[in-house]
Amino acid sequence: MSYLKEVKKVTTTGLQSMKMQGEKIAMLTCYDYTMATLLDAAGIDVLLVGDSASNVMAGHETTLPITLDQMIYHAQCVGRGANRAMVLVDMPFGSYQSDSSIALASAIRIMKETGAHAVKLEGGEEVLESISKITKAGIPVMGHLGLTPQSIHQFGSYGIQAKSDVAADKLLKEALMLQEVGCFGLVLEKIPSDLATQVSEKLHIPTIGIGAGAGCDGQVLVLQDMLGMNADFKPKFLRKYADLGNEITRATSSYIQDVKQAKFPSAEESY
Ligand code: KIV
Predict the structure, then answer these.
(1) 212 lines ligand 1 (CB under 6 A)
(2) Which residues, at least 6 apart from 116, have a Cβ–Cβ distance to it below 8 Å?
(3) Are residues 162 and 264 in the same domain?
(4) What would the pLDDT profile of 205-234 be if each residue is shown by its tens digit?
(5) Looking at residue 91, what is its pLDDT?
(6) Is 29's C-beta closer than 6 angstroms to any atom of ligand 1?
(7) What residue numbers bound the domain in which 184 lies?
(8) What is the band of 6 on the pLDDT scale with cuts at 50, 70, 90?
């Protein structure tokens, strides 16, 4: 028998109850083991192994280049560090768009090889068949509408989506379709806050916003952005909770100075 107290893990039904009880859901992206242990210990509800790893971890301009194997590697690292939090993994570009059998095979690989709890994929009407197949296999799926970065070349910019009445109507209809087909939640990215509030009120599944205002049932940010590790990235929706970029530069400069001046290591730091 374990002497450790069992933690109450965050589940899809747990997130649903949070929505019903009006408790907001806190989600952050995470791509590695060390950060996963820290965020989990702080009490984060959901760790999103986002395909933004393509930008943040690999330095690509878009999320398009990251592969399924690379996403699986990041998800395995995060999974080893998560205890209480739900681990949700983005299905990368190319792993689900071509047909629903390929989508199911990709989702199964993620679940089998990483121990993650759920997958997320982008799109509306065009991905319904895939979502239906994946959820029928017992895999929870989170949808993602609004600005869907895997379609950046179609959008042409990372600007706000669904601004016209027609586009807002389409988004609302697609949100309802995603719920109908079995999604347990929905990310709403960069849409007007009135629309996000309306969608959140109409759906019984939780909505998680990024640049979608306070009416969503939860919020998500890219970890490195909210920790202030990317000085040049300052969209209106981003709140920086730390200035780690400057702190890391300061610590690194001190270390370099100490090494150059033979001040590190000291006698106490030596064997
Ligand atoms: O990959 C990602 O970081 C995301 C969030 C922005 C929602 O999908």
Answers:
(1) no
(2) 49, 75, 78, 79, 87, 88, 89, 110
(3) no
(4) 999 999 999 999 999 999 999 999 999 999
(5) 98
(6) yes
(7) 12-240
(8) confident
Ligand 1 centroid, distance to 45 Cα (angstroms):
15
Asked if residue 7 is part of any domain, the answer here is: no
Helices marked H in 24-99 — which ranges? Answer: 33-42, 53-56, 68-81
Residue 249 sits in the same domain as residue 131: no
Q: What is the DSSP letter of 123?
A: B
Measuring from atom 1 of ligand 1, which residue has the nearest CA? 50
CA-closest residue to ligand 1 atom 8: 50
Q: For residue 77, what is the domain's CATH number?
A: 3.20.20.60
Do 68 and 202 lie in one domain? The reply is: yes
Q: Name residues whose C-beta falls within 8 Å of residue 216's C-beta, 6 or more positions apart in sequence.
A: 188, 196, 197, 200, 207, 208, 209
53 CA: nearest ligand 1 atom: 1
Q: Is the CB of 45 under 6 A from ligand 1?
A: no
User: Range with the lowest mean pLDDT among 6-10, 60-64, 189-193, 265-269?
Assistant: 6-10
Helix ranges (H only) for 115-240 are: 128-136, 152-155, 165-180, 193-202, 223-226
Residue 164 has pLDDT above 60, yes or no: yes
Instruction: With respect to residue 20, please indicate whether it lies within any of the assigned structural domains.
Output: yes
- State whether 227 and 270 are in the same domain: no
Q: Are residues 99 and 131 located together in one domain of the fold?
A: yes
What integer pLDDT is reported at residue 99 of this predicted model?
A: 96
Per-residue model confidence (pLDDT) at position 4: 56
* Residue 201 is a catalytic residue: no
Q: Are residues 99 and 117 in the same domain?
A: yes
User: Is 3 a domain residue?
Assistant: no
The model's pLDDT over 52-72, given as tens digits with 9 standing for 90+, comes to: 999 999 999 999 999 999 999
